[in-house]
Amino acid sequence: MFKNLNVGALGFRLPFREALEAAKIGGFQGVDLDIDEIEKILDSKSVEDVKRILDQNDLKLGGWGLPVDFRADEETYRKDLERLPDYAWISRELGYHRVFTWILPFSDDLPFEENLNRHVQRLRPVAEILEDHHCHLGLEFVAPKTSRISHKYEFIYTMEGILRLCEAIGTRNLGLLLDSWHWYTSHGSLSQLMRLKGEQVIYVHINDAPAGIPVDEQIDNVRCLPGETGVIDLVGFLKALEGIGYDGPVTPEPFLKKLKDMTPSKAVKIVGESLDRVWRDAGLD
Q1: Which of 11, 47, 96, 124 lies most in the core, judged by the most C-beta atoms within 10 Å?
Q2: Could you give the CA distance from residue 165 to residue 160 in angstroms, rounded to a whole number?
Q3: What is the 3-state secondary structure (H, E, C) of 108-149?
Q4: Above pLDDT 90, what percent of the chain?
């Protein structure tokens, strides 16, 4: 596993060079870069140039967000899908092979089975294109009860549900985007994590939860820095991931307003230090 930075998860947008510098300031070992920006960079630089810049900064590539809106109308979905092979080619050439997206835990239009069929129909072509380019797709379950109770139809919101969706889609390059927040709010357990295989986890988010709030009353976009409250057992979470052989990025996603009020460099340093403490407590240094 390696400590990874996604500046967007902290509320910032930084261009390529500044994102690399931010990762170094925060003591991260990897960084997520915008695949669309990389495509533009490759208009004037080669793949080897980009790899050289990363090596000079001693940084690995983490993962990139799926640029296909499979929730949208058919025309939008098809246009996005047509562009995906170009992005996937870039990803393969850079060795940037972890891709991720999330699954909404509800629908106001489709009952569960119809929604499941729609996800399979939309995501199977996506997964097949990515598989052709040796890319893996992590699907994130969104667990808080508060995110789904006001909607008409409930949908997948657990780890087991995502794994069943992966099985229904049927390609071999699918797995979990495992977020400590959603694991906690789904009433997940360490034994549940230990039953996974390392290759079933494609990408990881880490964060803590506010204290004094019952788990079913937690609000998805109100979170804390890793280890800030101790509400989520992040030491156990990280040890479980190490135990199953997960070897990918671990990316803070704290959704903290106070970070957005800071300069990017200060925010990244604070987040990096919080992750360092949890990392040490888990015996990963």
Answers
A1: 96
A2: 9
A3: CCCCHHHHHHHHHHHHHHHHHHHHHCCCEEEEEECCCHHHCC
A4: 98
The pLDDT assigned to 285 comes to 81
> Which CATH superfamily hosts domain 2-281?
Divalent-metal-dependent TIM barrel enzymes (3.20.20.150)
Going by pLDDT thresholds of 50, 70 and 90, the confidence category of residue 257 is confident
- pTM for the model stands at 0.96
∠ CA 72-78-81, nearest 5°, is 100
pLDDT on residue 176:
98
Give residue limits of the domains in the chain.
2-281
* Inter-residue contact 85 to 126 (CB < 8 Å): no
**3-state helix vs strand vs coil in the chain, percent to 5:** 50, 15, 35
Contact (CB, 8 A) for 46 and 20 = no
| pLDDT tens-place string over residues 96-128 | 999 999 999 999 999 999 999 999 999 999 999
Question: What CA–CA distance (Å, rounded) separates 152 from 109?
Answer: 8
Rounded to 5 degrees, what angle do the CA atoms 84, 88, 90 make?
125
